[in-house]
Design goal:
By secondary structure, this protein is an alpha+beta fold. The protein has three domains: 122 residues, Elongation Factor Tu (Ef-tu), domain 3 (Beta Barrel); 63 residues, Beta Barrel (OB fold (Dihydrolipoamide Acetyltransferase, E2P)), CATH 2.40.50.100; 120 residues. The chain has five helices and 15 strands. The strands form three sheets. A seven-stranded antiparallel β-sheet has the order 1-15-12-13-14-11-2. Strands 3-10-8-5 form a four-stranded antiparallel β-sheet, with no helix packed on it. Helix 2 runs antiparallel to helix 4. It is elongated. It starts with 27 loop residues before the first helix and ends with a helix. The mean pLDDT is 82.
């Protein structure tokens, strides 16, 4: 066979395999959709968690720390001669804060003691006068008895015509005079007994009681020259120095006991549905952002803050606009959570009330 009769040999083409024709299930679009689905599920989970937490842990940023502020003021007027405290100093109950000049009050005390002594001495003299009046009364009674006896004897003699009628009349006059003297002596005795404080209407005993009251008042005023701390706490707002003349009732300083602090949290009225006394509270302050403190709900105020303001709102008008009111909630601070007493009066607080409600209860209430 010749070369011309031979057919040319063509190259064999590669046939596609089955792997190239397989469907692509895990494409780029499906990866993106899966990632978006994961983000959606995570967002739903976090959103639901945030919603449940907002319903079980009720917070507000309208809250402040408060405490009892005890003013220190004198009961009497005087000049400050000694000052024993400084600003922000810690004092204990009964510590001496300042002393007023006691010279004038000591003089008044000595004068009152002298007046009381004079009143008592007058009582001794009055008692002697009572004894003299009693003796005079006894003498008048004896003279009356003698006059009575003389009159009886004179009547007998007159009947026997021994003495004239004129002498009998003189005996009768003597008896009348003795009776008048007895009455006079009795009145004088009652008067002296009243003056001496022996009778029912005691005048001198009243004078003694009056002088005793004056003496006690003077001693109190002398004791008021030493002003002491009424409670344990910190000295604040000191506005007095040595040598200053102060008046009774003038504010000199204040004492703040930091062991009696609490939080006044102004919650919206829509947040009070599940807040009750006794629930636990956690809170933070701006001064110590890394510290967490604890407390307990003590009570809820009987009205809104606007209701007890200086000018309460008048809702019965034509231009009424509804505004969400805030009601103060008193939260006691646990002393164990702040042993160093870092919290100060007036600090801003962000409390969170832990109502203790479960997630199922929140979701059930939602639907």
């Amino acid at each position: 066979m010749t070369e011309e009769n031979q057919s040319p040999i063509l190259p064999v083409e590669d046939k596609p395999t089955d792997s190239t024709n397989a469907p692509k299930w895990f494409t780029r679009q499906r990866k993106a959709a899966l990632i978006l689905l994961c983000f959606f599920i995570a967002g739903c989970w976090f959103g639901l968690s945030w919603f449940v937490k907002s319903r079980t842990n009720i917070d507000t940023d309208n809250a402040f720390i408060e405490a009892r502020i005890h003013p220190v003021s004198p009961r009497i007027s005087g000049t400050v001669i000694n000052l024993f405290v400084q600003d922000n100093q810690v004092v204990k109950k009964g510590d001496l804060l300042l002393e007023l000049d006691p010279a004038d009050y000591r003089i008044n005390l000595e004068k009152a003691e002298a007046e009381l002594g004079l009143a008592r001495n007058e009582t001794s003299g009055d008692k002697l006068q009572v004894a003299a009046s009693r003796a005079s009364l006894q003498l008048a009674k004896v003279q009356q008895q003698q006059a009575l006896i003389d009159l009886k004897r004179g009547n007998n003699l007159y009947k026997k015509e021994v003495i004239p009628k004129e002498q009998l009349e003189r005996l009768q006059t003597a008896l009348n005079l003795s009776e008048a003297r007895v009455k006079q002596a009795e009145e004088a005795l009652r008067k002296d007994e009243a003056i001496a404080g022996i009778g029912a209407d005691s005048t001198n005993a009243a004078r003694i009681r009056k002088q005793q009251a004056v003496l006690a008042d003077t001693r109190l005023k002398l004791g008021y020259t030493r002003i002491t701390a009424p409670v344990d706490g910190y000295i604040t707002r000191k506005g007095v120095e040595t040598g200053a003349t102060v008046q009774a009732g003038q504010s000199l300083m204040a004492i703040v006991p930091l062991n009696e602090r609490w939080i006044t949290a102004n919650y919206k009225e829509s947040q009070l549905t599940h807040i009750k006394p006794g629930q636990k509270v956690t809170f933070r302050v701006d001064a110590y952002p890394n510290e967490s403190f604890k407390g307990t709900v003590d009570s809820i105020m009987a009205g809104t803050g606007a209701a007890f303001s200086l000018l309460p709102p008048e809702n019965a008008t034509g231009n009424y606009v509804k505004v969400v009111q805030r009601i103060p909630v008193k939260i006691l601070i646990d002393k164990e959570s702040d042993p160093k007493q870092l919290l100060r009066v007036g600090m801003s607080v962000e409390p969170v009330v832990l109502t203790g409600r479960s997630a199922s209860a929140v979701i059930k209430e939602l639907f």
